[in-house]
Amino acid sequence: MGDKKTQKKVEAFEKIWDSTRSFLTQIKEDVDKSVKLIRLKGELSQIKKKIESQYQSLGETAYKQIVKKEIKEPTLEKHAREITRLFKELKNSQKKIEEINKEISKESAAVKSSKSKKDSSREASDRKKS
């Protein structure tokens, strides 16, 4: 009788173990697929960045050739004119920033100088009082 109970327990344990092993195997397969997907998505992202870089390089090369009049293509020339306009706008904005920075530097120097003069006159006044 003890043998039958033990046998039933062993069989129940084997069923639980088989079920658990099957579940763990499925989880492992799912994790492996997820890791593979993440890796492939990363590769896709890198490829897309390389394509964008090549487009940019192509566009820059074409722009330079259009500006030098080596290429004559109305559609591309329209884009080149817009890029040239944007370069000018960028340069103007950079000049404005430089002018403002110079003004700030001058004002800062003036404030420091003024403060220094006030401090010197206070020190002189304090010495006279002593």
Order of helices and strands: HH
Q: SS-based structural class?
A: mainly alpha
Largest sheet: none
Q: In percent, how helical is the residue content?
A: over 70%
Number of domains: 1
Distance between the termini: 114 Å
Estimate the strand proportion: under 5%
What is the arithmetic mean of pLDDT?
A: 89
Give the helix tally. Answer: 2
Q: How many strands in all?
A: 0
Q: What's the shape?
A: flat
**What is Rg?**
38 Å
Question: If you had to describe this structure to a student in words, what would you say it looks like?
Answer:
By secondary structure, the chain is an all-alpha fold. The chain has one domain (2-107). It contains two helices and no strands. It has helices at 2-67, 74-129. Helix 1 packs across helix 2 (74-129). The longest helix has 66 residues, at 2-67. The model has no long low-confidence stretch (mean pLDDT 89).
Which features would summarize this protein structure in a list?
about 130 residues; flat; mainly alpha; 2 helices
In short:
The protein is mainly α and 130 residues long.
Q: What secondary-structure arrangement, pairings included, does this model have?
A:
Layout: H1 2-67, H2 74-129
Helix pairs in contact: 1-2
